[in-house]
Design a protein that fits this description.
alpha/beta; five-stranded mixed sheet; 12 strands; binds 3,4-dihydroxybenzoic acid; binds fe (iii) ion
């Protein structure tokens, strides 16, 4: 497509979508007879969102799930879920045995997350890449909370010859949207809580297969049914199993009980 033609096509979409956006906002002003006071309050709110760097957060809280829904159908593959505002590209590439980078005194229970990556056809996928990130046991993400090392609890690793993986990390805590910022204040004003259930984030990739961005949740989490961003899908909920068999623990160099979870990811072949 010639550049001029492509530009016209892109602008056509912008014009069409903006017309619809403006129509919705105009109808909203008319329906609620918005006052100038309220109008100025809205401007102040948006400025605050920008100043406190919460544009990605507020967008993701209210709209990302819908964008994911209109763009992804599982169609034989693992259900997708949103990336969220805390992904950082370029996480460390791990070496065996895989352990997400953590502080010397990283709080929380040790978690071994294992599983496999397969193609929708059933074939195992050796050499698939998992890019994994998560909140720590205090519900904080590195690079987005003060005082955490760069890339803490973020890493990339690959599946073995059988398409399998196991990675050591810690059990994440539920994530609470900061209450003091504009997004948190809005949720409070709406009478809503601020929690996401505890979760692990993954981007799973393999040549010839579509990138899968998803999240894993844990059975029994109190926030599963009311995730503030609404990103939970039932097939993505796994059991968090307590491990206390001494042989299993010794094989992994542990002398205390820990937790394990497992997930088998299925990727769709690229069309
Ligand atoms: C959002 C997503 C997350 O994964 C998270 O940990 C916090 C917030 C969000 O969509 O806003
Ligand atoms: Fe998250």
């Amino acid at each position: 497509m010639a550049v001029a033609e492509r530009t016209r096509a892109v602008n056509g979409r912008v014009a069409e979508i903006f017309a619809d956006l403006l129509e919705s906002l105009t109808a909203l002003v008319e329906k609620h007879r918005i006052t100038f006071d309220e109008y100025r309050q809205a401007i102040g709110f948006l400025e605050d969102v920008s100043r406190q760097r919460e544009v990605p957060l507020i967008m993701d809280v209210f709209l990302a799930v819908t964008v994911d829904n209109v763009n992804h159908i599982a169609n034989g593959g693992t259900e997708s879920s949103i990336e969220g505002p805390y992904y950082v590209a370029g996480a460390p590439v791990l070496e065996l045995p895989y352990e997400l980078p953590r502080r010397d005194e990283e709080p929380g229970d040790v978690l071994f997350c294992s599983g496999s990556v397969r193609s929708a056809s059933g074939a195992v996928l050796p050499g698939a890449t998992l890019d994994m990130w998560q909140a720590n046991a205090d519900g904080q993400y590195s690079q987005f909370s003060e005082g955490l090392p760069r890339h803490n609890l973020r890493g990339r690793f690959t599946t073995d010859e059988q398409g399998r993986f196991e990675v050591r990390t810690v059990v994440p805590a539920a994530y609470e949207i900061p209450k003091a910022g504009p997004t948190g204040r809005l949720l409070s004003a709406l009478g809503r809580h601020h929690f996401r259930p505890a979760h692990l984030h993954f981007k799973v990739s393999h040549p010839d297969h579509e990138l899968l961005t998803t999240q894993i949740f844990f059975e029994g989490d109190p926030w599963l049914d009311s995730d503030v961003v609404g990103a939970v899908k039932e097939p993505l909920v796994v059991r968090l199993e307590k491990k206390d068999a001494s042989e299993w623990l010794a094989k992994r160099g542990l002398d205390r009980p820990c937790y394990a979870c497992s997930y088998d990811f299925i990727l769709r072949r690229r069309a």
